[in-house]
């Protein structure tokens, strides 16, 4: 069994990005600039955004953080998005989700200029991805593709079972794995909360990708010998022995499942660290105008 080391892979990607930034600086070119909008003080969101800003600093990007109270009106938020759309200094920006209930998330995501939508959540980018056109790919599925590619895991003709169909992970992952691409060319089954007999499907999988948010959902009897298992789940569970008071648990019963696998991601340290690296990669692409001329 080989552990898929997301931390190491993420560091390698960030080193590659940092080297490109150094080269851009050397020839006097514009340095990539990522902006982030954060609304409210949700603990998870604040941590995620701070980590994104820190990662920008590490690779030499310029970053800006716009932090608003959760009382901000939808109109004010849309105005800020318009400003960032028009700001030529900013190559890409993200609006950290979730947003407060009084704000229409779809409306906000659609207000972002697709050319600056480095999260890949705008329907134009989703549509371009489905059509196989150049697009910003959502960071978590893109990170999983990097893991498969860098560990040279064969995907051609394999049966990939994706569990969870969210717009940010499961659904795009299922599309990307089915594409005539490398990694890709899998036969894909997409499972969700109404799937009958989940174990029947996962047991047939050469590659299982789970993004549900139920700790330990995938047990040893649900995985075939030699399978590749990618665990996206990150649920905070109470842990009195930690300073933070919690630890992260994945959707896979790691200790029991790992011995059966050819490859498996740990939680934490698997998929998680790649998400930020891919956001940076999308921002670099935005500044180089690689996706949209
Ligand atoms: P979500 O929370 O929006 O949706 C959960 C999905 O799981 C739904 O599509 C639902 O149909 C499916 N589901 C629910 N119960 C099920 C069951 N019993 N069997 C099969 N499917 C079931 O999904 P999300 O936003 O993709 O988040 C999923 C998990 O991944 C969460 O733990 C989240 O924290 C984590 N996550 C991690 C990263 C990262 O590591 N970078 C990024 C995104 C999400």
TrEMBL record:
Pathways involved: One-carbon metabolism; tetrahydrofolate interconversion
Residues in Tetrahydrofolate dehydrogenase/cyclohydrolase NAD(P)-binding domain copies: 138-290
EC number(s) stated in the UniProt entry for this protein: 1.5.1.5, 3.5.4.9
Entry protein name: Bifunctional protein FolD
Keyword match NADP: yes
Record-linked Gene3D superfamilies: Leucine Dehydrogenase, chain A, domain 1, NAD(P)-binding Rossmann-like Domain
PROSITE patterns: THF_DHG_CYH_1
Statement: the UniProt record of this protein carries the keyword Hydrolase: yes
UniProt keyword annotations, A-Z: Amino-acid biosynthesis, Histidine biosynthesis, Hydrolase, Methionine biosynthesis, Multifunctional enzyme, NADP, One-carbon metabolism, Oxidoreductase, Purine biosynthesis
Family to which this protein belongs: Belongs to the tetrahydrofolate dehydrogenase/cyclohydrolase family.
Pfam families: THF_DHG_CYH (PF00763), THF_DHG_CYH_C (PF02882)
Summary of subunit composition and partner proteins: Homodimer.
Function text: Catalyzes the oxidation of 5,10-methylenetetrahydrofolate to 5,10-methenyltetrahydrofolate and then the hydrolysis of 5,10-methenyltetrahydrofolate to 10-formyltetrahydrofolate.
Residues noted as binding NADP(+) in the record, renumbered to the chain: 164-166, 234
Stretches assigned to the Tetrahydrofolate dehydrogenase/cyclohydrolase catalytic domain: 4-119
Catalytic activity of the protein: (6R)-5,10-methenyltetrahydrofolate + H2O = (6R)-10-formyltetrahydrofolate + H(+); (6R)-5,10-methylene-5,6,7,8-tetrahydrofolate + NADP(+) = (6R)-5,10-methenyltetrahydrofolate + NADPH
Organism of origin: Pontibacter silvestris
């Amino acid at each position: 069994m080989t552990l898929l080391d997301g931390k190491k892979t993420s560091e390698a990607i960030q080193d590659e990005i940092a080297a490109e930034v150094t080269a851009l600086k050397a020839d006097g070119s514009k340095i990539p600039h990522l902006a982030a909008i954060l609304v409210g003080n949700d603990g998870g969101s604040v941590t995620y955004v701070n980590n994104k800003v820190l990662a920008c600093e590490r690779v030499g990007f310029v970053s800006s953080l716009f932090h608003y109270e959760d009382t901000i009106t939808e109109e004010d938020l849309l105005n800020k998005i318009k400003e960032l759309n028009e700001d030529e200094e900013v190559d890409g920006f993200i609006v950290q989700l979730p947003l407060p209930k009084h704000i229409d998330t779809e409306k906000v995501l659609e207000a972002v200029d697709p050319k600056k939508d480095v999260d890949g959540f705008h329907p134009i980018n989703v549509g371009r991805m489905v059509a196989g056109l150049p697009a910003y790919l959502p960071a978590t599925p893109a990170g999983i593709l990097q893991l498969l590619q860098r560990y040279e895991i064969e995907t051609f003709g394999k049966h990939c079972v994706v569990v969870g169909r969210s717009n940010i992970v499961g659904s795009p992952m299922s599309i990307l794995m089915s594409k005539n691409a490398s990694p890709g060319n899998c036969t894909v089954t997409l499972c969700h909360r109404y799937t009958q007999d989940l174990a029947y499907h996962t047991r047939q999988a050469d590659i299982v990708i789970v993004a549900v948010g139920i700790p330990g959902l995938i047990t040893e009897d649900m995985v075939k010998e030699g399978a590749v298992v990618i665990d996206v789940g990150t649920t905070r569970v109470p842990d009195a022995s930690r300073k933070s008071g919690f630890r992260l648990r994945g959707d896979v019963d790691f200790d029991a499942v790992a011995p059966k696998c050819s490859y498996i991601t740990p939680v934490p340290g698997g998929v998680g660290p790649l998400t930020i690296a891919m956001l940076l990669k999308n921002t670099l692409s935005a500044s180089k105008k690689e996706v949209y001329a």
